[in-house]
Task: structure prediction
Amino acid sequence: MKALSALARELDELAIHTEIKWLEIAAGELTEKEMRKLQADMLIKASSAAQKHFPNNSIPDNPALMRKAEATATKYLETHINGEEL
Result:
């Protein structure tokens, strides 16, 4: 959860920066080239933040929760798919 909270804070900061830049774009203060560079920079920053906080590009594994989720899904499917055994 700490990694997710840290990522959320970074993305919030990036969103604020992007909104400020959008005001400059809306006012016609940036050229097409500057806008393309800004877009690329924002994408790189968002990707870098995600990679920093989740370097394996995934959420942590929790076997106990996975077993519970699989059991719940199986029960649901058995109940709602014509009562057939899976």
